[in-house]
What does this fold into?
Amino acid sequence: MLVTLEGLDGSGKSTACRHLREWFQSAVFTREPTTSWYGDAVRRSVDDSDADPVAELFLYCADHAAHLSETIIPALDDDRLVISDRYVDSRIAYQGVTLRDRIDDPARFVRELHEPFTVMPDLTCFIEVDIPTAVQRSGGATKFERRPFLEAVATEYDRIIDAEPQRFTIIDGEQDIDGVVTDLVEVIQAHHP
It folds into this structure.
């Protein structure tokens, strides 16, 4: 079973993932961007305010493709529970905003780019926080963490969730981390007894 955690920067996904390791000790925990050289290229692009958004999308796609072949698919083939901090929905939401000036209907473009080769999650937990919380927690250090950008990304996430409500569970990210983790554990256990 593939479970993904999604949400705005500052929503607490990475912190929640660290805590979930205590509950699901036999699970494979992973993230995007990965720690591979593909992921390193993505992080360099994110830190570059002048990075070309189309080139950046393809860096993310390369990282995702390697992630699938090296981690996700082998773990699923072994009937392992896989929990990923970010996945395809992040690209649809974030690159759906960065590509607005370059591509018509960028979210659809990103989705269709992934469809031939990705594995869709069985469950996606969206950790929801309001924009001021996301900005305050993330620190606004990168181009993806600033308020106007996050507002646009939140709108893209709303569209994704509205299109596939059966795959998503909304988790209140405004509560303390213990509450977030408790909610996540309950949802994951209900889908993966």
In short: The chain has one domain: 2-191. The chain is about 55% helix and 10% strand.
